[in-house]
Request: fold
Amino acid sequence: MRIPGGTDFVAEEQPEAFAEAVAAHVLACATAATPRFTPVYTATVEVTGGRAGRARSLTGALDVRLTRPAERSGHDGGTDPEELFAAGYAACFSSALSVVERRRGATAGPVAVTASVTLGTRPGGAYGIAARLVVRAPECPQDVLEELVAGTHAVCPYSNAVQGNIEVVTEVHGAS
Reply:
């Protein structure tokens, strides 16, 4: 279902219309035998040259040089897949936290989410990643922030995508 005038942030921009659309969708799917996935947005990025190549989105909004982490220097101008994943995870988690705040009638105040994504090896030589999220909301009571962050993991598409697949450590820093 599309919400007229909705963007990627329709949940924040039109919360009533979004809530009605979600409720209608849940009711419509309640009788379905298998869960469905309803696309909302698709981003397409083409990479040429692998980790030492270039990433370009079809929209043209993203056009970056990729650099292997071991070859990075302070002024090479490139980025790497882990940095891009960290940026996406932090941005998505922050937006999802706003949704959870609104649903629960809570206010966290200013929030900063820092994501660190680590590339490593697994037994047998395969590569893997791990993530660490640090959520800071100095005006929000610690217990309230912990509850909001726990709920955010259930809403955030990145958290849902990696759940059970990679280690995600979350640190929460609210008001004492």
